[in-house]
Design brief:
By secondary structure, the protein is an alpha/beta fold. It has a single domain, classed as Rossmann fold, CATH 3.40.50. 45% of the residues lie in helices and 15% in strands. The protein contains nine helices and seven strands. The protein has a seven-stranded parallel beta sheet with strand order 3-2-1-4-5-6-7, sandwiched between helices. Strand 2, helix 2 and strand 3 form a beta-alpha-beta unit. The two termini are 27 Å apart.
């Protein structure tokens, strides 16, 4: 593939203040994107990352807020006239549940997260991970339909298949990301828009740093590759967004180091 495969294109990347989103924004610029809009709820962090990206523009964005998502895409269209690529990497986990998993392991007891999950814990994960994906998909398609072209990549999770003990809300939200992305992919393919999903396994990001030590260690047992880098995931994502994946529509690409296959 050409090292400049996104020459002159306009991209929007959510969750770009750190981790996979930041790595993807940098790689898009390196591969020729003329403008990359980096979006993140942490405006200070995303502004700092954008300053290191050629053509980078920072937008403070809560993807769980539909009005903010609409405003972000309205700005991009006003400034650039189009959107060619959207990568939706924004998402959250639940540190409280991770702490309960850690404490159970320390006491050598079964994990008991479900009975302690409050409504607000469930809604926070669903609002950002699933509702946010719907809001981003809707605005991305609205922006791309006039040109009858575009590529959208959402970030799901291998935990949607290999569900995590003590993480029902996270696994459910990511399974929903896969389903809504595939449903939208079928609907918008006639408009020349491709939608695909990456399903990472363990990735060494800020979110992963909150994973209990015993769980991190388990990721490398039995010969598993362990934690991928954010840059490796960015490369996978940009394959799905690239012309080389022109025949790939509605796919869920596992990137989990061989932990399991489906």
């Amino acid at each position: 593939m050409s090292d400049r495969q996104f020459e002159g294109q306009v991209a929007v990347v959510t969750g770009a203040g750190s981790g996979i989103g930041a790595a993807t924004a940098r790689l898009l610029a390196d591969r020729g994107a003329v403008a990359v809009y980096l979006c993140d709820v942490n405006e200070a962090a995303v502004t700092e990352v954008a300053a290191s990206v050629v053509g980078g523009q920072a937008i403070g964005l809560d993807v769980g807020n539909s009005a903010q998502v609409t405003q972000a895409f309205t700005r991009v269209i006003a400034e650039q006239g189009r959107v060619d690529i959207v990568v939706h990497a924004a998402g959250v986990d639940d540190p409280k549940s991770k702490q309960r998993i850690y404490e159970a392991a320390e006491r050598n007891e079964p994990v008991d997260v479900l009975t302690h999950l409050e409504d607000e814990d469930w809604r926070r994960v669903m609002s950002i991970n699933l509702d946010g994906t719907f809001f981003i998909l809707r605005e991305a398609v609205r922006a791309m339909k006039p040109a009858r072209s575009g590529a959208i990549v959402t970030v799901g999770s291998s935990s949607a298949f290999d569900t995590l003990v003590g993480y029902p809300h996270y696994s459910a939200s990511k399974a929903g990301v896969h389903a809504v992305s595939q449903a939208v992919a079928k609907e918008v393919a006639p408009f020349g828009i491709r939608v695909n999903t990456i399903a990472p396994g363990p990735v060494d990001t800020g979110m992963a740093s909150r994973t209990p030590t015993n769980l991190r260690a388990a990721m490398t047992q039995d010969g598993f590759r362990g934690y991928a880098t954010a840059e490796e995931l960015a490369d996978n994502i940009l394959y799905l967004a690239s012309p080389g994946a022109a025949n790939v529509v509605g796919a869920v690409l596992l990137s989990n180091g061989g932990r399991f296959t489906v």
